[in-house]
């Protein structure tokens, strides 16, 4: 297999780079066992029927997770079991066959191992893995499908808000708060479903062109409470002390970084974290710091939120910094991992497979 070139490690951004291997598994309800053995294939296109249900109906779910290199050169995955669980739950919401958790975790480990040379050197970036499941059955009418396709690939990435780009600087992102929900009431908001993202691209694009980094959606029920950005959960540090983040409901994706930040704040930093609805008015008047969490975003300070034509600045960044330092330290093996969140992906002896 011709080797793909490695990227320039000093100039990574959050953009896709082809790597050596992808994973593919197929499922069919009419077969026993439902899932085939799965295959690792050299990177390339995949063939699907033009009538595959996901092509028309967006019947698919995905995940995003990272591996990174420790100071001493080891490669560590972060909480991939949690992504496996969410992948299952997202699939169930769309009546797709849930992909077994152990199959997910072992395929992710193998994707990292086979593409190990694309895991950036320590401090230069991370290796982002994108597992996807779609309803692949050729089907004209709207309804549950019987055939499924799971694909996984990985790409080396740099920061989501790369250096030099307009907007996000060290002080954080600028958000436009919108009087609208990201997802429908009672819809698929708690699943990482493809369809949740399609409609938001235009919305975020409009505001990005006006100098914002992203938008902050209010809840779709009352358009009162803060929910999420396009791709991250949101936390507010109150002037009176303590942190608030919206509770998990139909408007919120249960972020793995959200859960990590809550646990680090509570268990390591001993800061009180309340998961409760928080109105935009309260967040802006009583908040002294705001930050966002996500696999791609990491933990990102919000420096300004514009709502109803008024700009509210959040000058503080220390809670975000304390949480990010601990999460990053665990992810890169620079700190002890009291939660058991990381898993080392060992290199196999050269030539063992090819
Ligand atoms: N909310 C939305 C809408 C997202 O797309 C993401 C990214 N997966 C998150 C929150 C953060 O989730 P995680 O920390 O698991 O990446």
Task: Describe the protein's architecture and organization.
By secondary structure, the protein is α+β, with helices and mostly antiparallel strands. It has 2 domains: 149 residues, 2-Layer Sandwich (D-amino Acid Aminotransferase, Chain A, domain 1), CATH 3.30.470; 159 residues, Alpha-Beta Barrel (D-amino Acid Aminotransferase, Chain A, domain 2), CATH 3.20.10.10. It has 7 helices and 16 strands. The strands form 2 sheets. Strands 1, 2, 3, 4, 5, 6, 7 and 16 form an 8-stranded antiparallel sheet that branches. Strands 8, 9, 10, 11, 12, 13, 14 and 15 form an 8-stranded mixed sheet that branches. Helix 2 packs across helix 3 and helix 5 crosses helix 7. The termini are close together. The mean pLDDT is 95. Bound molecules: 4'-deoxy-4'-aminopyridoxal-5'-phosphate. 4'-deoxy-4'-aminopyridoxal-5'-phosphate binds next to helix 5 and strand 13. 4'-deoxy-4'-aminopyridoxal-5'-phosphate (PMP) binds next to helix 5 and strand 13.
Which helices and strands occur, and which strands form pairs?
Layout: E1 21-28, E2 39-42, H1 53-57, E3 60-62, E4 65-69, E5 75-78, H2 80-93, H3 101-114, E6 126-135, E7 147-157, E8 173-178, H4 195-208, E9 214-217, E10 233-238, E11 243-245, H5 256-268, E12 273-275, H6 280-286, E13 287-294, E14 298-307, E15 310-313, H7 318-331, E16 342-344
Parallel strand pairs: 8-9, 8-14, 11-12
Antiparallel strand pairs: 1-2, 1-7, 3-6, 4-5, 4-6, 5-16, 6-7, 10-11, 10-13, 13-14, 14-15
Helix pairs in contact: 2-3, 5-7
The structure holds 4'-deoxy-4'-aminopyridoxal-5'-phosphate (PMP).
